[in-house]
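User: Sequence in, structure out. Go.
Assistant: Echoing your sequence, followed by the structure tokens.
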Amino acid sequence: MKIRDSRKLIITICLFIALSCLTAIAFTEDHNEKDKTTIKEIVIADTENNTKVSQESSNLMDDVAKGNMAKEEVLKIDNNLSELTFTIEASSIFSEKVNNNTIIYTPLALCDSDFTTVWVEGADGDGVGEWITIDNEQQFDLDTIQLTNGFTKNEDLYYKNNRIARLEIIATNGESKEIYLLDGILGLQEFDVGFKNITGIKIIIKEVFKGTRHNDLCMSEIRFNKYPLSAILSDANQVKIQHMTKVGF
């Protein structure tokens, strides 16, 4: 009788232990599922926040591009480029008479955040071999360059004039990049260049898309690391423009 009671007691204890283990396992799996859900929710939240930050950055860049931001605001978000004043020089400059006024298409148009203004080369030929230099006295890193190709005031002028098809960028540290531009884009095209510790670059036109009417090469905008540049004309270009103004062409 005592032996039978002991067996019942042992069986009861075993069943209790087994039930406790099953309960613990179920609790752990449920807890892990909740943890997974929490982690998933956090990841989704972080993704949404990153998207929001990216969108805000994109909007910020649009404001800078359109000239809607004050210079002080640009200084807060820009690297040291906004604190630099570059000297820009073109190998040649085109001018023409319009309604008895002399219009001079200087390279300063490349740095004015206005896609309706343009630099036009003034040499004989289609623009191949013409160049632009952009320099200053302080070193900086140039990760990306943005270019607006052609006369982008409107589509008609864009296709009537020559556009850049291929160019070479030579940095002051001796490195160079060859870049192919797409045609038909009346906006910024961005290219990675990765120049470190430079004071400037030289852009040389290597190949062009031909205009339907004019044989003059045009370019509307240049930006470094997505930001517009503050620039002045070189002494040589200033002398050239003064001469153009005096003679009328």
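User: And one key feature?
Assistant: The radius of gyration is 32 Å.
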